[in-house]
Amino acid sequence: MASLSETPSPCPAPTSTISRSRQQEGDSFPFPPTHSFPPFYTLQPTLLTRTSQLAKWSLLVQRYHAHHHRYRLHLATALSSPLFHNAAIHRRLSHASLTEIVNYMVKSEKDGGGGQRAEWIGGAAGKGSERSEAWIWWKKPDEWAEVIAAWVDKTGQKGVVLTFYELLNGDAVKGEDWVGMEDEVLARCLTPLVKKSKAQVFGEEGEKGVKFF
């Protein structure tokens, strides 16, 4: 299993574990030893050290959200969660530091970022206080599209019309990683299939459906 110092895998699994991990009270996620290192909660001024620190936080955020099957990060609320607040060592990440971590995750690796593993909700134009929520892409939309397409082929769903509710909560998808995903996230993840004419999404908000080809 990769350590937090390594590059995130494209599709970190919800059940992934981290060597020499520990759990915080009330949270089933196995936190790595780094999470109990006080300096980890203060972004360092040296560029090389800071970049390494941002990469570790990026991987930790992805694995935490994958473990709990979460896709949305609300910064103000998250700062009180065990992910960013380690009560045992009296350390909490600051709002400014979390914003910088998400900014790093939003950027591509080419631009010196974390590989577009996050996206500000409301678009890149949002600044300052407007950047209050972000999608966390522990699988990117195109990666989710591949997973869903494989399920369609495996279960013979081509030509079948499914509501978003059935695709997210139906008996046929029990045990799949995307179960419980928000409608908005599912729509984003189906977009690559729509562009390839492998799916058609229709219906109004709250009553959407999809047909696979």
Could you write a compact summary of the structure shown?
It is built from 6 helices and 10 strands; from the N terminus they run ββαβαββαββαβααββ. Helices cover 33% and strands 14% of the residues. Helix 1 packs across helix 3 and helix 4 crosses helix 6.
Your description of this structure?
It is built from six helices and ten strands; from the N terminus they run E-E-H-E-H-E-E-H-E-E-H-E-H-H-E-E. The strands form four sheets. A three-stranded antiparallel beta sheet has the order 3-7-6. With 213 residues, the chain is an alpha+beta fold. A hairpin with a 6-residue loop joins strand 9 and strand 10. It is elongated and about 55 Å long. Helix 1 crosses helix 3 and helix 4 packs across helix 6. The longest helix has 21 residues. The N terminus is likely disordered.
